[in-house]
Write a structure and sequence with these properties.
about 400 residues; Rossmann fold; 7-stranded parallel β-sheet; 7-stranded mixed β-sheet; 18 strands
Length: about 400
Amino acid sequence: MALKKVLVLGVGAQGTAAAQRLDEDPQVSEIICASRNLATVENLVKQLTKAKGIQLDAADKDSIVEAARGVDLILNALPLEWTKNVLDAALEVEGNYQDYAATTALHEDWVESIRIQYDEYGPKFEAIGKTALIGTGSAPGLICAATRDAMRHLDTCDTIYNIVWEGVETKRFLPFWWSPVTALHDMSEEAYAVIDGNLVRTPAFGLPFKRKYSYMGKEITFVEHCHDEPIHYYFNREKFFKGVKNVYFKYAGAGIDFSLPLYRAGLLSHKKEMINGVEIAPFDVVNAHVPPAPRTREEIKEIIDEGLLSDSGCMAIEAYGMKDNKNILVETHVNAPGLVESFEKASISAEMYLTGQGGYLFTKMFLNDKFHQRGLISSDMLTFEQIDCYFEYAKGLDITLSTTVKEI
């Protein structure tokens, strides 16, 4: 099997985690790490053995094309506004493509932007015999693979809940362990859900429901949150989700607790307003005061050494449906290291462990030629054989599934 050359675009928290794993992978011959900030790239590259760093402005598609010539895979860990440029560059160099989440870069309406990826970019990648895999972080990504896994236990599916609790809390002010601007954008929007077979908007922070799984220690209230999964499952409901009629993404944790009062006060609004003679969007003010996600070993160690208030979390799937004419609940929990254990294992945060490394597991499937599909697919469109492969790789990172199937 030929060794592979990978271009990693963006070296934030997730791109850094992926690059570190790629550096250890025997199937990788070279990693090109690229970012607008050359100092950040150089700081990462000096820690790796197979990598070289370049400065790149993602606003210039031609610079992406130049960097991508001759690579086997373009791993896009850039902010979402650059997705169109990277997709177009991948097509131009006839390369495989992977990213972490859906974008509005193709259309101002998010659903239409995703539809364009499937309907327009899919045939273009198929025509050049390449694969574009989108939504491959932890959520979307890992959680989508786990939700697909649940479908093997059902004949038909009625309702899916994807449930995430970010339970890590630190003594310092740190509401988000990933891109704050992406997190705040999600917090500022109405959510999406599939209800009675229709994709609809639901109130941001609305439709609360409570869960207390055995490992939680307390009951948690989860709310609606604007996320990719319901949109992808809606498009793929017949072929990959047993005709599911209802899909919800439910979220809880420090980020929700921080953002909810801001949302209620109008401080996550993108609409500019005059304040003391200055025109400014409240969202931009808030975003300017939120610290970036910790990325380096030194930053993460300092936070842990300061002390944690909580090192908990939850990623769960509840899938309700029918099997052999019986009402069934398939309840799946993702088991993974928390913050302290993630740092002990890999010198990274729990978010980087799940998202950057969870994304790398899809990359590893590319490296080992596990994708036969040509065109554009999302991480919820894998075969059961590919799902088995993904979670076999995941065991090496101590990421496993616990699934209970019960009649209700």
